[in-house]
Amino acid sequence: MPSIFREPDIALAYEYLPGAAPVVVFCPGYASDMHGTKALALEADCRARGQAMLRFDYAGHGQSGGDFLEGSIGAWAADAAHILQNLVPAQPVVLVGSSMGGWIALLLARTMARQLVGLVLIAPAADFTEALVRPSLTPAQLAELHGKGVLYQASEYGAPLPLTLKFLDEGARHLLLGGKIGVRCPVTILHGMRDEAVPWQHSLRTAEALESEAVKLIFVKDGDHRLSRPADLALLRAAVAGLPPA
């Protein structure tokens, strides 16, 4: 597994598929990794048409080094930026972000105007620490979080997920939805209307905040947060393949 180091000597794992531009770059979600169903489906498509693709794991995720509990939106966005700057410093790029990866993709996009061909976002969770997580916590959960520094919450996708006070508080430094998001490239947003983690209305807020006029919203009425069924994956693959060439 190739890796690239960032300070303080944390190895970030990645997989780079050489090919034609633009490079499809997949930003995974919270506690997810580069071997998820959506990332691998896109890689298979890129391989078939000879297009380059970059998948990676943030620190503390998947096969990267580091401690998940030390992570934050800012740190993981910096991981993504570090990998992009070292592996695809000048190539045209399509950013694909899933859930928290959508927030990170939007943070990256604001500084990549010359490279960015398009954005594809799946249930993008911009600002979710303040807009979704903090308001959902009970007084008892908030007390536990402030007392222990970490709270473990049940997940329908596996073991309970940790939420740290550091992660929650640091997210407030990277909020986007209070103003305009300086992204002007074509954007496609996919969102399941049975998403219990990120309500589909959150994508409307995101679309309204984007400066780009070339924004498509695709809602899947019976879709959940993952959007990983064959029909959902077909929508994602078509959205990426349908972006204009570099």
Description:
With 246 residues, the protein is α/β, with parallel strands linked by helices. The chain has a single domain, classed as Rossmann fold. Helix content is 35%, strand content 26%. The protein is built from 8 helices and 10 strands. It has helices at residues 37-49, 73-87, 100-109, 128-136, 139-148, 165-171, 201-209, 230-241; strands at residues 3-6, 10-17, 20-27, 51-56, 93-98, 116-122, 150-155, 158-164, 187-192, 215-220. Strands 1-2-4-3-5-6-9-10 form an 8-stranded mixed sheet, with helices on both faces. Strands 7-8 form a two-stranded antiparallel ribbon. Helix 2 (73-87) crosses helix 3 (100-109). The radius of gyration is 17 Å and the shape is globular. The model has no long low-confidence stretch (mean pLDDT 95).
Task: Set down the secondary structure blueprint.
Layout: E1 3-6, E2 10-17, E3 20-27, H1 37-49, E4 51-56, H2 73-87, E5 93-98, H3 100-109, E6 116-122, H4 128-136, H5 139-148, E7 150-155, E8 158-164, H6 165-171, E9 187-192, H7 201-209, E10 215-220, H8 230-241
Parallel strand pairs: 3-4, 3-5, 5-6, 6-9, 9-10
Antiparallel strand pairs: 1-2, 2-4, 7-8
Helix pairs in contact: 1-8, 2-3, 4-6
Cα distance spanning the termini:
28 Å
- Say what the CATH topology is: Rossmann fold
Q: Given the helix and strand composition, which structural class is it?
A: alpha/beta
List segments where confidence is low: pLDDT < 50 over at least 5 consecutive residues.
Answer: none
The biggest sheet, with number of strands, parallel, antiparallel or mixed sense and barrel status, is: 8 strands, mixed
The CATH architecture would be: 3-Layer(aba) Sandwich
User: Residue-averaged pLDDT, rounded?
Assistant: 95
**How many distinct domains?**
1
